[in-house]
Amino acid sequence: MTGGPRVAVIGASGVVGTTMLALLRERRFPAGEIVAFASPRSAGREVEGHAVQVLDDQAEIDGFDLALFSAGATVSREWAPRFVDAGAVVIDNSSAFRREPEVPLVVAEANPRALERHRGLIANPNCSTMQMVVALAPIHREAGIERLVVATYQSVSGTGHKALEELEAQALASLDGADAPAPAVYPEPIAFNVIGAAGSFADGDDHTDEERKLMFETRKILEDDSIGIAVTCVRVPVRVGHSEAVNVQTRAPLSAAQARELLAHAPGVVLEDLPTPLRTAGRDEVCVGRIRRDESSPRTLSMWIVGDNLRKGAATNAVQIAELLLERALLWRAASSRSTPRVR
Is 118 annotated as catalytic? Predict the structure, then answer.
């Protein structure tokens, strides 16, 4: 639609970038123009009806109001500041800027007011953090959260196209009675297996980067550094959809019935008896079930949280942020009195 914001989608040929383009159409985002950017290997492709342009030094990046990034931290560190300097508001799905104190880390249902302090750059949380915080934010507001014990069961689509191909190739070979292809994306075969460490280890750290992300990002979004968090991130042979077993110790007493009532009215949450990745695939809501009292610990509840990691875990939240920026007149071009932000 003419007259609306001009939008760039960077990483448009990836699983999340493709989903972003689909969601802009599905949610009828009033863009005046959408331009899809990707690496040279995607040149000439068409994604969701958009011809892919190569993002390189010859690319024309002036004139955009919004830029949605899902091309990895290396690309974001190089190109996000360039788009900001060119006048766009960047919503970045990578880990590049989440730890920057001046960059808001936003979950649309949990802390939308953080958008008011953006300086041209907004970070999207990690997918596991995202869905968990949608469910936990109402509980934290009502009773405070003292401690979390979390186990994630993360699908292979969180790693990208090659991981999906690896799962399918190994599964098909095993079902045919053939030798499965050797793992290339993961350290062990993923088909019919569970890998007890999702993510990678930094030197000297016995936690993976996925686990560190969930710890840091949860505290930043909920604005409470005192929350104790123990987490184990696991990779499972599921195409789409992350699941989480979450044990929540609150500061004030909160019964299972009270928690259900809170979540029944929480934005972006659907209560189900037993959510599964297959049922949540393609949905934008976070599904929560098995809410029960932890009989071993006072003021403690256990619950099961499931979400589509490509949609709410990444693309949907980015588009929701774009909608909020437009609704609240927080785009740079709508605020001409503001100077171009500086990004490290």
Answer: no
How far is residue 53's CA from residue 56's CA, in Å, rounded to a whole number? 9
Q: Structure tokens of 278?
A: 């297959």
Predicted structure pTM score: 0.91
Total domain count, the chain = 2
pLDDT tens string, the chain, 344 residues long: the values are: 357 999 999 999 999 999 999 999 999 999 999 999 998 888 888 999 999 999 999 999 999 999 999 999 999 999 999 999 999 999 999 999 999 999 999 999 999 999 999 999 999 999 999 999 999 999 999 999 999 999 999 999 999 999 999 999 999 999 999 999 999 999 999 999 999 999 999 999 999 999 999 999 999 999 999 999 999 999 999 999 999 999 999 999 999 999 999 999 999 999 999 999 999 999 999 999 999 999 999 999 999 999 999 999 999 999 999 999 999 999 864 444 334 444 44
147 lies in which domain range? Answer: 128-309
Residue 30 forms part of a structural domain: yes
Instruction: Residue 303: give its domain's CATH number.
Output: 3.30.360.10
Among 50, 118, 127, 140, the one annotated catalytic: 127
Residue 293 to residue 254: CA distance in whole angstroms: 9
- Do 191 and 152 belong together in one domain? yes
> Is the distance from CB of 194 to CB of 235 less than 8 angstroms?
yes
Do 135 and 305 contact (CB within 8 A), yes or no?
yes
Asked whether residue 199 falls in the same domain as residue 298, the answer is yes
Q: Quick check: is 127 catalytic?
A: yes
Residue 101 lies in a domain: no
The active-site residue, picked from 140, 233, 242, 287, is: 242
